[in-house]
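Technical annex, item 7. During the second reporting period the consortium partners agreed on a shared format for inverse folding records so that results from different sites could be compared directly. Each record opens with the tokenized structure and is followed by the designed sequence. A conforming record, contributed by the partner at site C, is shown below for reference.
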């Protein structure tokens, strides 16, 4: 029996109505998602869900890494939440506060495994501006780039820093020198040869906002400043934003990441390091790092400090046991000179100190436990004492004795110097790279070898953090002997610096940083390394990577994923080998307003 026509039409109209309504509903939903805050917040929450899943589900994270490596992940990697603007993965207070407080272990580096870390790009703070160029940055920085008022509020009366409109300004003061670092340095120069090139490398321990290091630069002294991640909020970030060499570290249970006899001058201004605690372990570490003939300056407690007579007596006793020459006690400042030649420890030993065995490597310092023994100058080959090495700037180009001690060291050093002079000239002249201020101030060389790249830039107003990968030949001692600075580091871990702290990152042989030395397998992912490079690079900063065409093709795919624009160039014509050069720029991107 047939259905009446009116009924048939009624049913067809119902279907049509449903399809039409659905179509208009989808269009309306599309407009809502595209043009309203609700859409933004839903998208943000979807991104956050994906982001959290990459941290909580290692397999999901690994799938994302594999897609990025293969070039099949067409979207850029997502940005991290807005509260991650100052995130340092290895110095995360939430994670590290669970650890032992003995010898400040919890304030040292403790890195999460890559699979425990969300794969995301650290955003800049709201209102971020391109950094004030050097040398103005020494005296003022944008408040919006580091909107932390704690130091200015607490330390303003000591001249550390002040808030002035859109800027933080730095009058140059410090807790022990409220009259300014210049005045304080003038006082020290009565006792120490701060001019004339005798002293070149310095370590400022517990440095505040690095006004001491910043002021020493005008004397031709290159001071590296360090402090832990701190309650004052980001001292080291302020130092780097000013263009002063600095990194995050804590003198706790391990050696600091430097070779023996690196520094001509070591300085503590109210750094509160308990030098005589734990059988003088921290004084012994300072002694390992101080070049024979070098100077140690301690200002503040316990030097002639009220109610600290015992600590002051102990400090003098340790210095005596190590045969340090007392140069001066001026108010609350003491200055010692380290002896040249092996210590007189065996004959006079009022502090229970011993010399290290000949077998103890003096310059191993990557996750290396502090030793309770004194490093013998004779355990390091060659002439390393102040007075026997050339003055600055001659020491930059003269082959150090620690290089000559290596196999074919003299020839390798001279060839390396020539190679980098040629390469840096090519970067400037043919690739049009500006490697000087105002465009560039803070530079990093991720695979520095003898510091040839940094040496070729020495006449410019930049400074270079020379990184020696901890699994490669430990040539950082040669870098310090040349009057340059740097640290040991393993690039399968994040670096101890705040986000957005370097203008230019240089790396020769990027894949070698993550490969196992005995095979073609990687120890970690190139994606994670590039996300870390993005974290420490300032917006509008540049990266230059030298490697084989195959590696650079991979890097170019990943550069898109971290939102860099990149181009690949031929190498300089005089160089041998198959290398090419990739140059990339990080854009200044802003987070969508609803991504909190």
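Designed sequence (site C submission):
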């Amino acid at each position: 029996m047939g259905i009446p026509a009116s009924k048939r039409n009624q049913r067809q109209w119902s279907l049509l109505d449903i399809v039409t309504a659905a179509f208009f509903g989808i269009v309306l939903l599309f407009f809502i998602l595209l043009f309203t805050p609700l859409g933004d917040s839903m998208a943000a929450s979807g991104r956050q869900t994906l982001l959290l899943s990459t941290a909580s589900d290692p397999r999901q994270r690994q799938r994302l890494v594999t897609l990025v490596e293969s070039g099949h992940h067409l979207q850029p990697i997502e940005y991290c939440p807005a509260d991650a603007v100052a995130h340092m993965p290895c110095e995360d207070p939430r994670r590290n506060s669970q650890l032992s407080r003995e010898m400040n272990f919890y304030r040292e580096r403790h890195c999460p495994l890559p699979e425990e870390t969300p794969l995301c790009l650290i955003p800049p703070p709201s209102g971020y501006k391109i950094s004030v160029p050097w040398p103005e940055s020494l005296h003022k920085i944008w408040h919006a780039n580091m909107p932390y008022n704690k130091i200015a509020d607490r330390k303003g009366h000591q001249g550390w820093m002040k808030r002035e409109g859109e800027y933080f300004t730095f009058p140059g003061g410090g807790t022990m020198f409220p009259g300014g670092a210049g005045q304080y340095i003038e006082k020290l120069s009565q006792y120490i040869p701060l001019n004339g090139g005798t002293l070149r490398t310095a370590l400022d321990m517990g440095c505040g906002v690095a006004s001491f290091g910043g002021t020493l630069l005008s004397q031709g002294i290159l001071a590296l400043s360090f402090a832990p991640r701190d309650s004052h909020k980001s001292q080291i970030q302020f130092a780097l934003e000013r263009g002063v060499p600095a990194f995050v570290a804590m003198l706790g249970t391990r050696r600091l990441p430097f070779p023996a006899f690196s520094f001509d001058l070591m300085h503590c201004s109210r750094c509160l390091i308990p030098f005589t605690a734990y059988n003088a372990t921290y004084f012994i570490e300072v002694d390992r790092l101080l070049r024979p003939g070098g100077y140690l300056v301690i200002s503040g407690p316990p030097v002639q400090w009220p109610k600290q007579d015992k600590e002051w007596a102990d400090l003098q006793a340790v210095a005596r046991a190590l045969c340090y020459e007392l140069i001066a006690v001026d108010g609350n400042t003491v200055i010692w000179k380290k002896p040249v030649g092996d210590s007189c420890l065996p004959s006079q030993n009022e502090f229970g100190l011993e010399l290290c065995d000949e077998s103890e490597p003096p310059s191993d310092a990557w996750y290396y436990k502090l030793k309770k023994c004194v490093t013998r100058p004779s355990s390091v080959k060659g002439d390393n004492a102040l007075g026997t090495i050339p003055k600055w700037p001659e020491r930059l180009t003269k082959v150090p004795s620690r290089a000559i001690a290596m196999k074919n060291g003299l020839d390798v050093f001279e060839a390396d110097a020539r190679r980098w002079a040629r390469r840096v000239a090519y970067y400037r002249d043919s690739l049009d790279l500006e490697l000087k201020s105002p465009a560039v101030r803070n530079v990093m060389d991720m695979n520095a070898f003898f510091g040839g790249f940094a040496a070729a830039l020495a006449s410019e107003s930049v400074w270079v953090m020379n990184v020696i990968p901890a699994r490669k030949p430990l040539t950082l001692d040669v870098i310090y002997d040349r009057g340059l600075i740097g640290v040991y580091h393993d690039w399968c871990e994040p670096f101890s610096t705040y986000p957005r702290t370097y203008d230019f990152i240089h790396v020769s042989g990027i894949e070698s940083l993550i490969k196992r030395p005995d095979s073609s397998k990687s120890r970690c992912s190139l994606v994670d390394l590039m996300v870390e490079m993005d974290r420490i690079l300032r917006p509008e900063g540049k990266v230059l990577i030298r490697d084989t065409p195959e590696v650079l093709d991979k890097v170019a795919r990943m550069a898109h994923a971290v939102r860099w624009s990149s181009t690949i160039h031929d190498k300089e014509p005089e160089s041998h080998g198959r290398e090419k050069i990739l140059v990339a720029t990080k854009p200044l991107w802003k987070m969508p307003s609803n991504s909190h």
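The first strand starts at residue 140 and ends at 142. Residues 1-12, 30-53 have pLDDT under 50 and may be disordered. All partners now use this format for quarterly exchanges.
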